Amino acid sequence: MLTNKNILLGVCGSIASYKSASLVRLLVKAGANVRVVMTKDACNFITPLTLSTLSKNPVLSNYSDPETGSWNNHVELGLWGDLMIIAPASANTLAKFANGLCDNLLTAVYLSAKCPVYFAPAMDLDMWKHPATQKNISTLVSFGNTMIQPGYGELASGLTGEGRMAEPEAILEFLSNELKKKLPLKGKKALVTAGPTYEAIDPVRFIGNHSSGKMGFAIAEELAALGASVVLVSGPTSLKLSTQGIKRIDVTSAEEMLEAALDNFTGTDISILSAAVADYRPKDISLNKIKKDSSEFQIDLIKTPDILATLGKQKKPGQVLVGFALETNNEEENAIKKLEKKNLDFIVLNSLKDEGAGFKNDSNKITIIDRKLNKETFDLKPKTEVAADICKKVLDLLG
Ligand code: C5P
Description:
By secondary structure, the chain is an alpha/beta fold. It is built from 14 helices and 23 strands.
């Protein structure tokens, strides 16, 4: 959730300031870009050097740097952040925030920040309980800021009570969950098919194709990254998912893929069928390995079920259904025919004529055609980026 997110971390003066070192480390490990702004008092509790080393960025605490004469632009900082977290947030700084004071870099950055602001208070129990602190917190919450509740336990004063800053791990989890809630496909269900199908001839041989499954896996990962809960029905492939939380169902044949797709289609908001399903399968599967006795050999083939067309017939209003067309000639004409015949919202066309596109490659070159016959052609790009283009079209359709 935090990968490539710009996090502004404000650190106030508190015995809990040392915990901000662990927080910076956790945020950086989670892939975030972290810039730290400290109050002067915070620098008495933990050195800027520690936090700049861990964040891999200079730590700022003054409006200007006396050595270089450069100005630390609080407006630029405020706009840079995707999220601002003040941890530890002292009673003093909370009071300043609540009243719009702007007497140091941190308070100026707070006033300039356009991003969601979170604060993790840390103070002694009586300071925490004081009506002034509680009123300031209510004011900040009324501004749309979010508090990360302090814990109960032994405090630096030796007293026991509420006021301990939430642990860095808990703050990280809190922020990840907050970011998840804001994802555009949060609460949406998605179904993806990927890879080839293998249609058995005998216990040893099968009819299959060169599909690697890379496109479908990239789509499943992208949908999950956008917050959808994803079921991925995959034909035989050696690929592994890098995102946790995607439900993967491994199948072999078209019949099995149909069954898994139907089991998961009801209530699905988005279905993207990218599998290269075999069109025909052997009519009879030999129970024993077929011997090479004769110079010629025929296999009777029968059609496999068209999974996409089956879902297209069952599709209810509001359900988005997307298919692929891998063509070698009359590409657009054939794709439009499929779009209409299979009742799709849009079709993703890729041509085997395009170098670097299609099976096995890590890249693809696609054209998206929708029901209104709007056509958008994309450059050759990595399949992960192609997946993002496809999901963006889905987001547009869902409004
Ligand atoms: O008709 P054609 O096989 O070219 O259609 C391709 C699209 O239909 C792809 O999205 C593919 O996943 C889907 N398909 C399917 N079941 C089949 C054949 C294709 O779901 N039996």
